[in-house]
Design goal:
single chain, about 775 residues, mainly beta, Immunoglobulin-like, Ferric Hydroxamate Uptake Protein, Chain A, domain 1, Maltoporin, Chain A, 3 domains, 22-stranded antiparallel beta barrel, six-stranded mixed beta sheet, 45 strands, disordered N terminus, OMP_b-brl_3, Plug_dom_sf, Beta-barrel_TonB_sf, cell outer membrane, Outer membrane protein beta-barrel domain-containing protein
Length: about 775
Amino acid sequence: MRRTAIIFLTVIPFLLTAQEIKQDIFIYDKKQMPISDINLYYIVSKDTIALKTDVHGKFTVQGKNNEVAKVVVNHHQYSYFEEEFKISPQPKSIFLEKVFSLDEITIKAKKQNISRAFGTTTLNIDDSPIFQNSTFKDAIMLIPEVNIVNENVKILGKNKTLYLINGRESNRNINDLLANQIEKIEVISNPSAKYQANYDSVINIVLKKNQNNGWYFNLNSNTYINRLTSYFNAVDVGVNLKKWSIESSVRYNFDNGLVFSNGWQNYQDKLEDYHTRFKVNKQYLETSTHINYNIGKNSNVGIDFSYGKYPKYNSISSSESKFNYFHTNENERIHSVSNSGVESQFINTSVYYNFSKEKNNLNMYVSYIRRNQDFNNNITSNRENIPLLNQNILSNNNSNTLIFNSDYEFKFNEKNKLDIGFRASNFKGKYHLNAIHFSTPLSSTLFDFTENIYSWYGIYKFNVQKLSFSTGLRYEYFNRDVIYNNAQKSKINQGNIFPSLYIGYKSENKNNALSFSYSKKIQRPNFNDITPFEYNVNYNTIFRGNPNLKNEFIHSVQMQYAYKSKLFLTTHYNYYQNYIEQVTTFENNNLVWFPTNYKVNNLGTSLMYNFSAVKNKLKLYNKLTVEYNENIGNVNDVSLNTSLWQWNLYLAQVYSINKKTGISLITNYYSPQLSDFYKIRQGLRTDIKLSTKLFKDRVEASVRINDVFNTYFNELKGNYNGFESFRYSDFSTRSIIFSLRYNFHSGKKVKSKPIHIDNSEEENRTNK
């Protein structure tokens, strides 16, 4: 009898937990009045059930006792509501807040700015103060995997990033895009076999689309005041006409910069102490047009066109060098001036077609890119008014690129998908370099350059319970044909296989996500690196090509963890075989720059935690990146064996004073960074921005002060085989920026579905 009682008492809790029970839930407004006939979604055990409240504001749910469920309410008269709870026999109450608008009813769904799914981290751009009148680089720093080192975007130690706009290659100046022109930024830090093998990371920028059936107009103006004044202006205009949408953008920049550098360089028999003044004046014009036509519910076709030109791009570098000879203790002074002018322009046209219906998705496009550049650089050096060097470098470069890309996805069912694709690219270039008054026979070169890459890939995705798998394989056939001076030829034909693997896990309540990924990539030497010419950069510095460069192969492994889209942790390891880098060596008392190969080990961890405080008025984005870099190789019989632990701290605090005004405080610090034989050190930088909205939110105005405490600096130290060097550069990052944005739109909003369904289980696609 006692044994029976024990068994009975043991089984009772299990039975209570396992049995199906019903729970009544009531929905009220803030005045505790029941809300009837309101549609809602009840989510339990991965099932989504549409329900409606009765006249008493009640609806009834069913499930296992203590099972986690979710209620989502997205009604146009009430604020968006979403809540997880445990099912129990006790009644539950929900209170909704009513929203009103005299002109129209606005539906707002609360979304996290940062989310991660299937190896893609997405930053959604909203009207938060941190995005108002911000640039692309300002925005992308909020993504956990991203850092900006020496003005270059780096993703977990990687350098070869593929930039896409709406899923397609573009030659547009990405860095000049403003955050309010962007809907979201997608970062793939370890791309699968779907993407070109010569890129080890991907950034896809999805531009904003007009949400109204009618016209819209957007004007951006930014004024930078530093040692010199710069202006950045952009105008966006577009129209939606039922099945047609046309969007155009025009940008014109006046960019001026002034940098001072001081340093010293140790040679075999002397020491150089130098002071340099570098001034640059750039004007940049860019225009782009996007036309889209919806053929039906399942397909659309469109064309992208962009044109960019530097009407003016001049730079002047002047330096004063004092040389002290060790043996004689004599001194001499050399004055050198380098005057450069660049004229460049590009044309980029893409035609695309997208089809999506039930189990089939097809995306294809054809792109044509044309670039031409004329470069004129004159270098003069004098010792006590005695000419030492008077060299003129003339360069004319023209290239044409044609790309065809197609991707097809077939869904066998919700758990099994096959993604296959084909890509072909043809690159043709003509390059002419002529160095006048330079004695070496390699100073003048004329060559034609042709590259063809044909690639096929296949990716199979499947789920096993809570695990997601993606296995991929890509084959690329590469052909290069170079003709030097109409005679000497260089041909390369090779095929390579590039595998990829992704394994993901997501907990039942979707709060925890863990993933593992591997990829193999390649970096082939570009034409600038392998052509056997050389020219002076200044009186004692020479650039030289290296025809013996080998292909660089990259093996990348990543482990990623995310908690509630608030905590992001990524651990990575990158192994670079035959890493391609431009190094500095000594030859006949001259500095020689040339590209070479060596081995690199890079491992690190990125940790980001985002949270809100003070009744959600204060948002904090905190990011810490720690990396270890090791360089191993031999450069001109000099051993390269350098290593360094380095870290970066990024803190962004955004405080919303009210619904229209906010303050952003951003702090960034980099520990010393490693680059072949050199270490680069930078100072702490803190920026502050005040932004507000005016005139019924049609105008956004902001004032930003960069480097508030004037603590930023850039310092370089090097040691090549005992020859030490030092350089301190003053970029004067302390500046004030005045920004103004005006936006106007007409027409009614395009109707959309009443609820946003979380698709975090699916891969964020880049074809738009």
